Amino acid sequence: PDEANLPNMYGVLSDDDALETLLLEASDSEALGGELAALARNIMAIRDSTPKIFESFREGAIQSLVSFGPSSRIAPVVKHSTFDPAMLKARKITLVFGCDGSRMDQYEAWLKVTLWAVLKGLVRVGDARPVWFLLDEFTNYPLHGIPQALTGLASSGIHLAIILQELQELERVYGRDALKTVLSQTDVKLFFGASGDTARLLAEYLGDEEIITESYSLGRDLDEAPGLSLGRMKRALLAAAKIREMPTDETLAIIRNLKPARLLRAGFHEVMPWREIVSPSRRFGGKRHIGTLKMVIKRGRARATRSGIRQTVRTRLPVWRPIWGALRHFMPGLHTLALGAAFVLVLLFGFPQLLWEYTASRSWCQYLSLPFIAEPVTLLGRDHCPVLLWVKPGGVVQ
Question: In 3D, which of 268, 236, 264 has the Cα closest to residue 250?
């Protein structure tokens, strides 16, 4: 068992004598009900009858194990293990897989096989105690069958948080069907901006909304009021162009079957008390990174500050215009309204009289009125002359 590791497997496949010794020993073994011996004899038969085919298969196996060769950086890590994945369900443990980004060509295979082994070990525990995985740059280390296994992993208490640069990366690595599966099987989807094909795919995924449309018509006559008609039409809930133009500090969130929401992003350095808990980073010169306070978490509840709230302009449905458009057929014309207003004015104030002549001392004032309707008025013995005089029927001056 101490020799059953990836570096030794690479060494056996690369050494003809070691491989021959192992095959001969396996061919006489009774392990696995004799199946191991049958497999060993079959391999030797293929090697003897079709050496070219055998060598091509062996070369392919060696190429898949190059990253685990005895001289590789990760060989000491994979020779033995003291960690049991079931420990993640037994108690609270934070397990970090950290790799040098400049050597991802070597570490990719190690990440894939290690994550695969941990996930398999957790599923075999057989209970639903929760374990969370944060998989950053998910497409850099493709895990076979993960998109299709999302539902089964959730039933075992395994929750995945997958982080991607573009949705098209998921499609490129796992295929179009896998992309559809991930979008349908994930409960929470957060989009921190999108461009190109991702924006178009997201606009299609969000679907359409029904809006009220307005159309206007002008009256045929000058005194006829304009007409308004309302209709319904569908349009994209958020067009691809609008998604590309979203501010960099906004996030588009789709949570289960709730309506999509635009959220204001808050980094750890903008949340109290997180920004005081995290130690200073060398990236910021060893100083604590403090930003504008957007959220306060206290006693398990989060509260947004004034800087953490942004007002958005919403399209309002027309309220008074449809009512006015419906009543306009019962409204009188402009001429009728003008005559009615003049009639009410006369009833309240009387007929208007305009100052026409007056003396310097303002003791005599002569007014003109509407011809054939009201007679002119003369004022005597006053110290001023109003420019406009209202006279009710019967000669009462206002």
Answer: 264
C-alpha–C-alpha distance, residues 188 and 309, integer Å: 22
Backbone φ and ψ of 319, nearest 5° = -115, -60
Specify the length of the chain in residues.
Answer: 398
Token pair 């690595």 is at which residue? 173
| 373 backbone dihedrals φ, ψ, rounded to 5° | -115, -45
Sign of CA dihedral 87, 89, 92, 93: positive
Confidence of residue 377 (pLDDT cuts 50, 70, 90): confident
Q: Which residue has the tokens 């060494």?
A: 11
200, 169 contact by CB (below 8 A): no
Give the torsion sign (CA, 319, 323, 325, 331).
negative
pLDDT digits (tens, 9 = 90+) for 264-280: 999 889 999 998 888 88
Q: Give residue 398's pLDDT.
A: 58
Give me the pLDDT at residue 35, please: 94
Q: With both helix axes pointing from N to C terminus, report the angle between 6-14 and 16-27 in degrees, rounded to the nearest 10.
A: 100
Residue 174 near residue 147, CB atoms below 8 Å: yes
Distance between first and last Cα of the chain:
118
User: Of 9-13, 104-108, 161-165, 319-323, where does mean pLDDT reach its minimum?
Assistant: 319-323
Residue type, 287: K
Pairing of strands 388-392, 351-358: antiparallel
pTM: 0.64
Q: What is the pLDDT of residue 216?
A: 67
pLDDT digits (tens, 9 = 90+) for 321-366: 666 655 666 667 777 788 888 888 888 888 888 888 888 888 889 8
**Distance between CA atoms of 182 and 204, rounded to whole angstroms?**
16
C-alpha 275/C-alpha 42 separation (Å) is 63
In the three-class reduction of DSSP (H, G, I as helix; E, B as strand; rest coil), residue 228 is classed as strand
Residue 5 near residue 12 (C-beta atoms within 8 A): no
Number of Cβ atoms within 10 Å of the Cβ of 122: 21
CA 355 to chain centre: 72
